[in-house]
What does this fold into?
Amino acid sequence: MISNLKREIVSIPQFYGYIFISPTGKPTPDVTNITLGISNNAWFIFSTIVIAYPKPNYALLFGNRTKNNEIVDSITVNALNNFTVHFNKSIQEPADYGTYHLHINNTFGETTIFINVVPVSK
It folds into this structure.
């Protein structure tokens, strides 16, 4: 299991966060609740490294469990059991703030990480 959580925050105009998840059978995150302070008309951008086999499935859903089509996501295969999932979204409306649910699963289990996007003043 990866025990060190590394987070780098770039306040303007983007947030970069790294969440390391190391499953042993069932995916088990080091962190289950993240808060991102984002100003209006900015982006939230973060990557999650997932160590899993087989390749994980993922979904970033808004608090009401709906998928926001404005969230751009991709997955990069780093190695046979190492993947990086990337997300970015422009924050333009008050409705863009709130709790997002990052679901990650494979055949051995699943986990959810809560990402709270809160407004901050410039």
Observations:
- The chain has one domain: 7-119.
